[in-house]
Amino acid sequence: MAVKTFTIDGQAVTAEETDTILQAATDAGIKIPTLCHLDGLGDVGACRLCITEVSGTNKLLPACVTKVSEGMEIKTNSERIQKYRRMILELLFAERNHVCSVCVANRHCELQTLAEEHGMMSVRFPYQYPNTTVDASHDWFILDHNRCVLCTRCVRVCDEVEGAHVWDVMGRGTNSRVITDLNQPWGDSETCTSCSKCVQVCPTGALSSKGKSVAEMVKKRDFLPYLMATREEKI
Amino acid sequence: MLLEELNALAEKEKAGRKQICVRCCMSAGCVSSQAVEIKKALEKAVVDKQLTDKVEIRRVGCMGYCGQGPMVSIESEGLLYEHVTPENAPSIVEALAGGKTDVEKGDPNMPFFARQMLVVRAHGGRIDPERIEDYIEVGGYTALHRVVHDQTPAQVVEAMTKSGLRGRGGAGFPSGLKWATVAKSKGDRKYVICNGDEGDPGAFMDRSVLESDPHTVIEGMAIAGYAVGASQGYIYVRAEYPLAISRLQIAIRQAKQNGLLGEGLFESTFNFNVEIRIGAGAFVCGEETALMASIEGRRGQPRPRPPFPAESGLWGYPTLINNVETFANVVPIIQKGPEWYATLGTEKSKGTKVFALTGKVRNNGLIEVPMGITIRQIVEELGGGAPEGATIKAVQTGGPSGGCIPAELFDTPVDYDSLMKVGSIMGSGGMVVMDNSTNMVDVARFYMQFCMEESCGKCIPCRAGTVQMYNLLNKILSKQGTIKDLEALEELCDMVKNTSLCGLGQTAPNPVISTLRYFRNEYLALLQPEPPGEKAKTNGHLAGSTH
Amino acid sequence: MSKVRLATVWMDGCSGCHMSLLDMDERLIDLMQHVDLVYSPLVDTKEYPENVDVVLIEGAVSSEEDVEKIHKIRHRSKLVVSLGDCAVTSNVPGMRNRFKIEDVEHRAYIENAQNNQHVPRSVIPKMLPHSRPVHEFVKVDLFVPGCPPEADTIFFTLSELVAGRMPDLTGKTYFGA
Ligand SMILES: Cc1cc2nc3c(=O)[nH]c(=O)nc-3n(C[C@H](O)[C@H](O)[C@H](O)COP(=O)(O)O)c2cc1C
Ligand code: SF4
Ligand code: SF4
Ligand code: SF4
Ligand code: SF4
Ligand code: FES
What is the DSSP letter of B236? Predict the structure, then answer.
């Protein structure tokens, strides 16, 4: 396999040609913020937090889906990118009802952490306060649309890893919602195996286990790379 | 079918023609104003007046002058009738027999028609779109025969490249280059897709082509299939176009019956089939990757490119996707040669472009003009200028992805690059003329609302950013906004444009950006003064942060 | 050096931020050497004074009275600080925003009331359709998120302000902290 040489934030880096900028950066110890990406799942390039500046194009390229190439000069953290990332985070907070202080995921939430890392101390955009609901029909789990960022990790893990494809997305634009089966209550789902994979990969408090109170929902995401590794070995 | 049989069919058709052909427009616009009844009335009148030997009534596609429909034309007599009704239609036939008619007459030589250059729409308003014989009579399917027998796929691609044709779906990507990429891509299978989703508000160029001349699109696709090595084509049409769908169904059936689609075309080894896929009316499904997802039966959402469809498209196979109008250019290019085509238009934008001209001009309708014509010529000559008492202020092109061009820039030539330079785009062909009564902030809001409602919701900047931009425009329009709101709007425009996943989000801010560029005063006039040290009472400004 | 004229205001919040303020304990005494507390739920002044240097605002803007108050405060203060999540994001008070005011009132004063079930109209200020963050009404100069921000955070913030610096709170506090 061909090896490519390029720079990330001025640092010389080499990587396989099949690697994405994100993989190369991670291997080189350079952190690029992500939200929709999760190691072990197919990438969709949806959250746009991982955007980078790459020499030779005016377009900002999402690191999670852009393959490396020879001689690329990649900037992961320019002022412009930082500004856009912060705006994206603010848009997310304004879009649904995020009340961290009473959220099961408080202190264990990727969105909250991203906001903190980006010095986001307030949201400049007016909050939308949508009329989003909670589905607590499942015996073990709760879906709280108030906290959902539509990253589709749940959709992908259930489809790609569990093979159940319980989840999908319904509606358009800001009215999009993740749904179980054909928009039936999760508890009535005949396809859900209750494996909890979706709950564990969900970056926020949108999916949680029942019985967890404020700040108690700690997700276990390590299972995914481990599981994928063991599966690959078997093949 | 053999070439001789094809030619024989054309000869037979010609021989059967009567002295006078009365053409009755049966496109969606005219059909919705009783064109079917009008045609019946005309046919009955011919029988009543015992003119069946001499006069035939022909159903035809769109004549373009849609604002004046229903239309009836009698080319041999140089007659054009407008606003025809089933009641007054018989008098048109009576007039042919020496009687009188008081049906409104149009001028077939007026600039609206005379200034047009018909390449794509050459058969529109002339042939019966539901009879393959009509198409064959005007040389249909000979281009396909020619490429299959006399040219290698590489030669066909070469012809496309030479012609200089650029995609008519909006972005203007060089078609030859796209065909060459698909031809080069390796795959057990390849596909050809015709994009007939046409979701821009007010646009109906592609619908008109599909309704008026479906075979030319099908033939163009077959030629493309031959050139790139595909044997299956899909035409994706929105469900809102039932007439286009039914005419395509008829056309595909007739082409199959005549051996012009299917296995071993013209006794060669080339196979090509076409199927229709009906879209459910989401604008975003016109975006190529969303369209393919939709054909595959998945949620119609765009995905990041690369990979481009040319490398990995439908079900992962190399796929050529072009717009309806792009395919409609293929047959003329093959028939008359790429050299001829390259003489039309400007250096970098070849050929013609079909526009749906609407708004504050005297003549509304569908026009096909050579690239390089100025906006002023379109508005003043073809459009006939402003109606009584109105002053034209701007022209909007490119729909929700485009921009407004102010009157002082009307000498801008209509080509891909010039339109881009003035902050708009060619787009798929919407052209809305606006006069002084139009508030440009309102125009921007209209398109923003459209994008907000049509956003697929996959990526955050477009999904949530359009909502905030729409709210800000509303706030400004209701005179509650401050300069801070305008700043926030501009920051959002910049961010959404640069970070969105697909073309919808990337271009959604364009109408705002272009109206701000030329009509900033209209925004400023709506703003509230801001009390010093204090922000206005309402929401949406940029609050300071700790940094 | 003249003392900093400090005010603290309690709007639609639970008073937790003020509790956290008091949690500074003996550090309060140090701080008071540099500060005049000119207005606060903790002192007796009735009218919000002129020429306030720094005001800490706890709570969201939820009623018509809050709106009036916040504008007056902005006019009379040099530096407005949103203290705590309710002021910064509307937080818990904002959780009613998805419901109609009538439904909220019915729930609070009738369904959940043991006796005297009626919606008070005269003494209680009229609620806004939404509880919203302070900065959606007036310019805010500094945000201190947290529910509540820790006493250390508040102490750091005030110490910096008293020293004439704008505190950098990155990594020191966050939503829900
Ligand atoms: C939101 C969006 C909507 C689009 N809608 C259409 C459409 O309705 N018809 C079309 O031909 N192309 C549309 N396109 C462009 C297609 O993605 C694609 O570029 C085009 O079909 C390629 O054909 P061409 O090269 O012949 O222009 C759209 C693009 C975007 C981003
Ligand atoms: S999901 Fe995360 S950001 Fe949203 S309320 Fe919960 S902790 Fe806060
Ligand atoms: S619990 Fe497992 S099967 Fe059920 S929805 Fe989640 S991932 Fe799918
Ligand atoms: S429920 Fe969680 S994992 Fe699923 S889309 Fe929402 S935030 Fe992402
Ligand atoms: S830009 Fe808009 S339409 Fe395109 S993928 Fe993002 S959300 Fe969907
Ligand atoms: S992590 Fe790359 S777009 Fe979300």
Answer: E
Does the pTM exceed 0.80?
yes
If asked whether residues B471 and B370 sit together in one domain, one would say no
Q: Which two three-digit tokens encode residue A192?
A: 């859900």
Q: How many CB atoms lie within 10 A of CB B169?
A: 25
| Beta carbon of A157 within 6 Å of any ligand 3 atom | yes
Q: How far is the CA of C79 from the centre of ligand 2 (A)?
A: 29
Whole-number pLDDT of residue C35: 95
Chain C residues within 8 Å of chain A (Cβ atoms): 82, 85, 88-92, 94-95, 97-98, 130, 132-133, 135-136, 140, 143-145, 147, 169-171, 174-177
Q: Are residues B332 and B416 in the same domain?
A: no
* Nearest by Cα to B497 from B425, B405, B394, B428: B425
Residue C108: inside a domain, yes or no? no
Are A127 and C132 inside 8 Å of each other by CB? yes
Task: Verify that B430 and B493 share a domain, yes or no.
Answer: no
**Regions of chain B where pLDDT drops below 50:** 532-533, 535-547
Give residue A55's pLDDT: 95
Query: Per residue in A34-72, pLDDT tens?
Result: 999 999 999 999 999 999 999 999 999 999 999 999 999
Locate the DSSP E strands across A9-110.
11-16, 51-54, 60-62, 73-75
pLDDT band at A234 (very low <50, low <70, confident <90, very high): low
The total domain count for chain B is: 4
Check if B174 has its Cβ closer than 6 Å to any atom of ligand 1.
Answer: no
Span from the CA of A150 to the centroid of ligand 4 (angstroms): 5
Cβ contact, residue pair B544, C167, below 8 Å: no
Q: Is B369 found in the same domain as B254?
A: no
Ligand 6 pocket test: which of A21, A23, A43 has the largest number of ligand atoms within 8 Å of its C-beta? A43
Domains by residue range for chain A, with CATH: 3-77 (3.10.20.740), 84-217 (3.30.70.20)
Q: For residue B155, count other CB atoms closer than 10 A to its CB.
A: 12
| pLDDT, position A221 | 86
CATH number assigned to the domain comprising residue C154: 3.40.50.700
Query: Is-contact B369 B378, C-beta < 8 A?
Result: yes
Q: Do A93 and C135 touch (CB under 8 A)?
A: no
Residue C38 lies in a domain: yes
